[in-house]
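Fold it.
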Amino acid sequence: MQYIKSQQGKLFLQLSSDLYRKEKIHKDVEYWRCIDKLCTGRLNLKYEEIIKGPSDHNHVADIIKNQAKVVVENIKNQAVETQDNPAVIISESSSSVVPIVFCALPQIA
């Protein structure tokens, strides 16, 4: 289980190959749903522990796209936490990525 931020700064939860977005919080229980709006996949957490789910998804997980989001989040975190040159950060982060995930990364202007 890993948390990543969306481009809008919202929190996503990655569990295996699926991504979830927080739907609501009620009485210390976090309700998460799949990022695909038409999907019925859900997950409930209480104090970072899964108490219900994950339920089945009605689509195939886009593993490549999800992994690319994780790589981008790692690049952003390194940029904030270190004084390294951005080109070096991107180069080091992308060198360890599988080529098919590398192709899914955003283009550098």
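The first strand starts at residue 2 and ends at 5.
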